[in-house]
Prior knowledge:
Layout (H helix, E strand, L loop, with lengths): L5 H11 L6 H13 L2 H17 L1 E2 L6 E2 L5 H4 L4 E8 L2 H10 L4 E5 L17 H7 L6 E4 L5 H14 L5 E4 L15 H9 L2 E2 L1
This protein binds zinc ion.
Amino acid sequence: MNYYSDAITNLIEEFSRLPGIGAKSAQKLAFHVINMPDDQVEKLAETILTTKKKIHYCKECCTLTDQEICPICASSKRDHSVIMVVENTRDLAAYEKTGKFEGVYHVLHGAISPMIGIGPNDIRLKELITRLQGDVKEIILATNSSLEGETTAMYISKLVKPTGIKITKIASGVPVGGDLEYIDEVTLLRALEGRTEM
Ligand code: ZN
């Protein structure tokens, strides 16, 4: 049954599409927005639109950035021959927060998951393979320890092995199924330092 006008119902529906937003939260957000001053709503909508328009993939590492080349890839202080492969920009941020990784990254934007039909061509793998033609000494696999993350790591290691480039995987200090972004810095560093060759 529809208790609200179509416009309100629409707004509630849009909010409920967002991750972590259930029916109750969607209603709360919708009514909050309706009661907000017009200029604040405009600012919110505008920020969402301009952010969405401005942000794209870094030409080198595919992380989300508002520049052509992200600050990490553009930095001469970073070791461009060591590439850490992560699933998303939030995982990159988790390692960046430790301040101890001096290499660069490659962001896949997902992981291989045959169960839900995500194959190698659906993530940024081609871009990684292209980068291997440059001066690369080591690929560090830092995908999540979920089934999808492990599948992706195995797939990449098979692709990289024939090139002779050293390929390592972060240690399993990272709990199974754990998202890198929720893991504390000490654990992340230990996982990085304890990486093993595949
Ligand atoms: Zn980059």
